[in-house]
Amino acid sequence: MNGTDRTRRVIVLNQYAKPRSEGGGTRHTELFERVRGWEHLIIAGNLDHASGQRYRTQDPHFALVPVSAYRGNDHRRVISCLTYCVTALWEALRGPRPDVVYASSPHIFGPVAGWLAARLRGARFVLEIRDLWPQSIIDTGHLRAGSLVHRGLRQLETWLYRRADRIVIVASGWRSYFQQRGIDDAIVEWVSNSAEPEDFDIRQDLIPLRDRCDAHGRLIVYAGAHGPTNGLDLLLDAAAELPEHTFALIGDGIEKQRLVHRARAEGLNNVRFLDVLPKRELAGILGGADIGVHVLADAAVFRLGLSPNKLYDYLAAGLPVVTNSPDEPHDIVMECGAGMAVGVGELAAGIRKLAGLDDATLREMGRQGREYIAKYRSRTVMSARLQRVLDEVTGG
C-alpha cells in the first residue's frame, strides 16, 4: 500500500492555534479542514496568551497540552514556550504514526519539537514560518542584536531551516531572507494567510456590531491583537483627531489595559473596547462596520514582507480598508481599489478621507476587496497550495 491508497496523517504543532470556537488564530483549522485525503491533528497550548485564560475544546482535530502561564515578554514567556515543546512532543509521539509533522513559528522552539517528533516517528518535517523569529524580536526592541542569546537563536534558526523537507512562508517577500541564509529556494513554498469570503457574510441572528458599540458617525473597526507591535497608539491618535466617528477595538493583549487607561485619561469617548470574540461570531458581524483599520508599529522586520490576517478578514467582510503598512498590505489595497494605503503616522488622514466618501463608493470598494480575496487569497485557494506541499513532500 502506498501513500495514495490511504488517508494520510499530518500532525500540526502551533502553540497558539485556535479552533473556530475561540477567538484568535484559526489559520491551521481553516486550511487543514479543506485539504483532501489527509487527517490532521493540531497540537496547541491550553492557554490563551492574550487573555491569560485556560480553555477547552470539543474539536476532535485539536489536542490541547498544558503550558505554563505568562503575561508580557519576559522569561516566563520563554518558559511557556519550552513547556509547550515538552508537552507537544509527548503528544506527537502518541497515536497513529504521521506521514508529516508540520511545525509552525512563532516561536522556533516548537519546530524543534516538531523536527524531533518527525525523526522519531519516521515522518517528513515541514517547517512553517509565520514570523521571522528571532529577527522580529530584535527589530521590536525585545532582544539586543549580537547578544549571546541572539547569536544562539540565530544558529538554532538556521539549523532548523537546513533540516526541513519543506519551508512554508506566509509572505512572498521573505524569500530573499532565506536565500541570504543559504537555503535552497526550491524547498521554500508560499502559502499566504487568507480568509474565506463566505465565512464573513453578515449573520442576522447576531447583535449587529454598530449596536454593540452604540456608534455615531462612521464605525471604524480594528480586530486583532493588542500588543507592542500592533501600533494601536497610532489608532488612538487618529480617534482623538476624529471625534465625530466611532472607533471599535476588538481583541486582547498585553497592551490592552494601558490603551484603555489612555483612552479614559484623554477623554476619548468615541473609542469602544470589545472583548475577544469567537471567530464565527466576529466573522458574522465584522461587515457591519464602515471601515477596517490595519495598523502596525514602525519596525524594520515588517519591511521584509507581511501577510496580515486582519487585512484579509476586513476585505473578505466587504470593508474598505486603511493600512499604514508597506509591502503586501499597501500593494493589495491599492491594486484592488479597496481603500487607502498611508504612511505609518498618517492613519487619521486616511480614515478621514475614506469616512468622507458616500455610502455607494464605500460599498464598491468593499465589493472589489471581497472579489480580490475570493480570487487570490481565500482559504480555498491557499489550502490547494498547502495540499500540493503535503502531497509532494510525501511523494503522493
From TrEMBL:
Q: Which organism is it from?
A: Micromonospora inositola
Q: What are the UniProt keywords, alphabetically?
A: Glycosyltransferase, Transferase
CDD domains tied to this protein: GT4_WbuB-like
GO MF terms held by the record: hexosyltransferase activity
Biological processes per GO annotation = carbohydrate derivative biosynthetic process
Segments forming a coiled coil = none
Q: What is this protein called?
A: Glycosyltransferase involved in cell wall bisynthesis
- Residues covered by the Glycosyltransferase subfamily 4-like N-terminal domain: 36-193
Q: Does the keyword Glycosyltransferase apply?
A: yes
Asked if Ribosomal protein is a keyword of the record, the answer is no
